[in-house]
Each structure stands twice: as C-alpha cells, then as structure tokens.
Prior knowledge:
17% of the residues lie in helices and 24% in strands. By secondary structure, it is of the alpha/beta class.
Amino acid sequence: MRRLLVVLALLFPLTPALPALPAEAAPLLVSGWTAPLSTRGRWIVDANGNRFRLKSGNWHGGSGTWNGSGDQADNANHHAGENSNRIPLGLDRAPMASIISGFAELGLNSIRLQFSNEMVHDSVVVPDAAVAANPALRGKTPLQVYDVVVQELTAAGFAVILNNHTNTTRWCCGVDGNERWNTSQSTATWESDWLFMVNRYKTNPRVVGADLYNEVRRNVLDDPNWGLGDDHDWFAASQHLGDRILTEANPNLLIVVEGINWTGIPVDGFPHDRPTLTPARGLSHTLVASDKLVYSAHFYGYTGPRHSGATGTGETSDPRYQDLSPSELISELNRQAFFVSGEEGHFTAPLWISEFGVGGREETGAKPRAWFENFVDQLIRTDADFAYWPLVGWHTNRTGNGWALLHWDSAGSRMGLYDGDDWRASAWTRLMNAPSRTGFIAPGTVWKMLSPDHGDFVESLRMRAAGDWDSGARKAACPDGLRLIGLAHTGNRSLCTSGGPVASTTYEVVWDERHVTTDWASGYTKYQCAPGYFMTGYAVRGAKLSTILCTATSQSLGSTGRTVWFDRSDNRPAAPNGADFAPSAYKGQCAANEYLAGIAFTTRVGSTGTPAALYCRPLT
C-alpha cells in the first residue's frame, strides 16, 4: 500500500541459481496452467495459449516496513506498527504453509513479491524472533528467506512476479530516497541487481515475471519523465533493462512496466499530475520479444488523478478517486491506464492493476467503501488482471492495520476475510467469481513502434547478432517476426506489424537507388528493397534517412506498387492502424495487405532528408 507523496556494500551472497522444487515438495494448491507466460494482445496466456488471468496479491515485507526514523527494532517505527524484519510479513506468527494456504483460500493464483536492492546485498541474518513460526529459517539472511518463500509459493503452484519495490529497505512511498530506480543507487547497480535476481530463479519456471520498479515519482527537486533521454527517463530505463533481462538472463519472463506515479509539486497553483500510463499512448515499449510486455498501474481511493493522497501538508483541492462519481471514475481510469487493454494500438498490452486496496473492518467511511465497490466493478467490467495490497497483516483482538485480507496475532490466531465481519468479503467474492475470458486465445494483429529518438532502437535479435550495420547512425529494427509498415515524416519514429512474409536470415542494407526500376517518386531520392525483400528497419543520421534494412523471404511477394505521400498530411489506412505512433508528426502507412518496399526523401533546400513517401506493394 502506498503512503503519501510529501513535497518539500556489501557483496552479493555467493548463492548459485536455485533449482525449482519438485512438485511433490508441497501440496499443489494452484493448478491448470503451464509456464512460461506470454502475451497475446491484451491477454496473458500460458505455454498452451490459454488465458491466464493474474488473480494476484502482494505479500509485502521483503522491501521493508521501517518508516525511516527511530530504532528499527522498535515496532512502533514501522508502518502500522508491523515489523517485517526485512522479510515477507507474518513469518513470526504463522507457518509459511499456513500463510500460502490462506492465499489459495482467497482464490489467488499469483503473488507479487517485493524486494529492495538493499535486501539483495544484506548479509545480516534475520532475528530468530522474526521467524519464530518457521524455525527452519533461523540463521538465514533476508535473501535466503526470500529464496525459501519463492520456492514454497511456486511448489504450491503459484506464479511469482518479482517486484523491485525500493532501493533501500524501508516503507514506500514518499520523498524517501526511493523515488526512482536510481535515486539512492546508480542505474548500473539497479540493472546488475535485476540480472542477479533473474538468474537466481531462472531454473524455476513458475517465477514468471519481473516488475521492474515501484511507483516512479518526483523527489524533492526533479520529476521522472517518459522519453526525454536523460537520467530520469523511466521509459528509456525500463526499455533498456527489459531487453537486457530477456537477452542476458531469462527470455521467458514477463516484463512488467508501471507508469509514472507522480510529477510536480502537490500545491494548488503549481503543476502536478499522476500521469500513470498516459504517456504510453504516444510512446510505448517494444521489447526484443514482442509478446512479453505487461503494463501496470496502482489505484487507491484516497489518492486522485492530481491528488497526492496527502492530508494536510501536500494536500490540494483536487478530487480524490473516492470523490468521483462512478461515471467520472470510469472515465479517469480509462484515460490513465485501462486504454492499454481496452483499445487496439502500438500500446496494447495486458494491464495489471498490481496494487489496489482499502481498509477493512475498521473502515466505516462511505466514500472509501463506495470507491472499492466501484473499482471492483471496473475490474470485472474490463476483465483486468489485478493484485490486492496487502495480503498479510497483524491484528490484536481483531483490530490493527486492517487493510490486509489475512491477519495473524502474536499467538498465531488468524483473522480472515471470510470470518463474517469484513464488509469487503462480498465485493471480493464478486470479483473472484465474475465471468471472465478463459480458454485458448488466438494470436491477433500485433502493432509495435520504434523510437530511435536518442540512440539505437534495434529490437531484432537477428540484427543485434549481425553487428553494427550502419556505423555512426541511429538504427531501428522491428522485433523478429514483425515488419515495418509505417513511418513518420519527422521525428524518426515508425510502426511495425505482424502478418507479413516469413523472414529468412538474409538481409541487405540499402543506401542508394540500386534496386529502383520505376520512378515512383519523381525528383526524390529513393531507397528500395530488391525483389523478394521487405523492409524491417532503417537508420538515420540526425533527421536524415541514412539506410534502409531489407530482409529476404522465400515467399512470393507482389511486384507492382503504389506511392504513399505523407510530407504534407497523414496518409494512413482507417483504424485499426496501430494508433498514433508519432504525435504531432505527419505519418505514412501501407495497408495491412501490403508490405513496405521503399522510402523516398529529398535533401533539396528547405528539406532535411526525412521520409516523404513510402513505396507499398501487395503481400501476394
């Protein structure tokens, strides 16, 4: 659960990659799915192509509960008085098997499991009292406890998504040194830690995802951004790390990218916003594996589209989500996040609401209760993937933090969602039992964009292995299996799609008119693929087109063509057409039953050599 945004080294443990536990090591509580997971359009599917809806919860604690001041051994200095002792909460009060069994009783099939970068390096063993109900964990470091938690969850059949929640081991999320992936550490350390964690669990197929960082937000002085190319560019950082995980560590993982949680100063009269995933509408991720991206977002009733969630300092007059009418709430949720799964475009991906929650028995407010009911309605209406925050909490005589769905007291007595006194039970039952898409998901049209705005954007593994095919230029190439279909007149961005010819390993880089046999753009320089080749990439120097990348196919391709001009206006097919991959720029695009065979440009006075026309030929 989030808390308010307020304004104003040790070595790696020398532990090898961990083997998956055999299925008989624990009762199989979750069944009916086969790893690994991937995506088809807005759906997550298992290895057999069947829909796997993430019905998840957050088992927090591994990233810390300490509030940041005072003695860490004093429970009073931890969020809600709950001291996780740097490991998943509750292991002092209940056997791990009982906790995991409770997750299955709730109907969950997956767990979002938090860790901090500090935890990865922490060699201090946890106190015996922190694992009193699990004595086999005595003498272990936080990471070694985390290992056992991962093994036991997956042995029971749960899918586990690793979540890098914070840099340091403490409660999130305010102005706390954990605002960005690189606030209290370097980007290189962040990436190195992630590769270490992914490799650590690589042999466990039920570790299915990497949730790259939690609630990226403003620190005291600076905002994160989405696409500016600097050290605060969350789009670039997540794009780069996602590709590194898939190419250097584990190609089977889902890559989970959360939107930007907060920008600006939460004071009336100053710009401030909760962008969430809105920037992805104009600039979305394209990974080397085009079926591995999942977008995520967090929503709580006490926060708002432009409300930090604060009361007092940092509070503005902007409405909170719980202040909105049901129709206003739906409109805002769709604008901020649900469009990625509700519309077809280059940004289309499964949407995982990886945090949402509300107070339980002690929450008597009409607005928070109504918000939770309305939000559950939205999850049902959109058939969204979700993860409740949090699953585990403490209680004393049935009172305490209250947000968790399962609580244990110091004697090990459990207070559960279905004990008969928790108002959330009916909404949870509605959510878990609502009709939902199941079964086989057929592959559909894929749209992905390329954005060599600040450097290479080569998403083809084949071309990465081929080396530098235009030295000194910024290069872009579609993921293997996709083809180029559209370009922007300015800004260098482009659009890839599926459904084209099968590519061979042969390619050609074209920088002249050697293959031009018909003057399809009189007075313009034309780069064109040879017969039997189609475009999968290009390179630019500054704004000017430098080369085109042509890939061979053994399939028969059409030889006639048409010219698509787009230097003075858009020239694209009607939707669905991949949506706007280059806002504020003119765009040209071949039809779905055509392939891109060439690009024309001019360097005459007043022109910069940017694409002005496409040469489109029929696929057959």
